[in-house]
Amino acid sequence: MGVEGCTKCIKYLLFVFNFIFWLAGGIILGVALWLRHDSQTTNILYLQLGDKQAPNTFYVGIYILIAVGAVMMFVGFLGCYGAIQESQCLLGTFFTCLVILFACEVAAGIWGFVNKDQIAKDVKQFYDQAFQQALMAESESNNGKAVVKTFHETLDCCGPDNTIRTFTPLWRDDLCPKKDSILETIVETSNCHRKIDELFSGKLYLIGIAAIVVAVIMIFEMILSMVLCCGIRNSSVY
């Protein structure tokens, strides 16, 4: 015998929440794949300076997001099916998966919060090393100039900070994005440290919003799944 009354409303409410959860998993998976193949990040994070590879901390977080999105889609489907079938076993499995996923999200959030500044810092250090090599007389023997030009063209920036941009104009025509005049290069082109900060802070901000929305949905789903499970158990007694 199926559930009735308020428990039946909870059943369909849980189905709707799980469908939203499934869609959110698909959106997170899509966003993660977009961030993974975004031209700005791929152009920069695939660079290699001699034997040194660009920092890949950002991609670690992206791979975590891809896994989370795929698992969310599976768990959302499991919740939808369990709610419609009124299966205590499936709902119990769904609740367990939600608890594990919620714990993983909290752990990933802590990891991201701890490393959010480190990601940009590592990339800026990598850029500074390439920039120094590009200014050296023997820079033709390494790819420092190519790495710096990739940064400048991808981020539309010029130099590590405003001081160097102002007082070392000799390398601008060779390394920086072309402008109509030197004055436009100084005024219109930002320093690369600020651009790197903007690049990663903007993407991490987007990830943070998605994580908060998903966490709220998961909390509601855990509550509803337990209430529905108890309702199914009580209805089977009568």
Summarize model confidence as the mean pLDDT.
77
Give the termini distance in whole angstroms: 9 Å
Percent range of helical residues: over 70%
- Under CATH, the homologous superfamily reads Tetraspanin
Total number of distinct structural domains? 1
Overall geometric form: rod-shaped
**Biggest beta sheet attributes:** 2 strands, antiparallel
InterPro entries: Tetraspanin/Peripherin, Tetraspanin_animals, Tetraspanin_CS, Tetraspanin_EC2_sf
Disulfide bonds: 157-192, 158-176
Keywords: Adaptive immunity, Cell membrane, Disulfide bond, Immunity, Lipid-binding, Membrane, Transmembrane, Transmembrane helix
GO molecular function, one term: lipid binding
3D structure, described in words:
Keywords: Adaptive immunity, Cell membrane, Disulfide bond, Immunity, Lipid-binding, Membrane, Transmembrane, Transmembrane helix. It comes from Halcyon senegalensis. It is found in: Basolateral cell membrane; Membrane. One of its GO terms (molecular function) is lipid binding. Belongs to the tetraspanin (TM4SF) family. With 238 residues, the protein is mainly alpha-helical. It has a two-stranded antiparallel sheet. The protein has a single domain, classed as Tetraspanin (Cd81 Antigen, Extracellular Domain, Chain: A). The N and C termini lie close together (9 Å). Helices cover 81% and strands 2% of the residues. It has helices at 5-37, 39-45, 57-85, 88-135, 144-155, 162-167, 172-175, 182-188, 192-237; strands at 48-49, 52-53.
